[in-house]
Design goal:
The protein has about 70 residues and is of the alpha/beta class. Helix content is about 35%, strand content about 15%. The protein is built from two helices and three strands. The longest helix is centred in the N-terminal third of the chain and has 14 residues, at about 5-20.
Length: about 70
């Protein structure tokens, strides 16, 4: 998880990471208030089941509903 202070920064960092990791097998996603409720639900499910490896987000990633399958610590 990559925590940033604003939704705009979350969007920008996620786009940069996706651009730079085209050849990588890692799946990334952005989670902030910019995503629709449907997109947020899909991302949260992806984090729970391990389909998403890296999430870039604002304070939204600190909510109780966001659970990680493996934090990789």
């Amino acid at each position: 998880a990559f925590l940033v202070p604003t939704s705009i920064l979350a969007l920008q960092h996620n786009e940069s990471i996706q651009d730079r990791s085209n050849d990588s097998a890692a799946n990334t996603a952005g989670l902030s208030r910019i995503q629709t409720p449907g997109e947020s639900k899909e991302i949260i499910e992806g984090l729970k089941n391990g389909k998403i490896d890296l999430v870039v987000g604002s304070h939204r990633i600190l909510s109780q509903e966001v659970k990680f399958k493996n934090r990789g610590l």
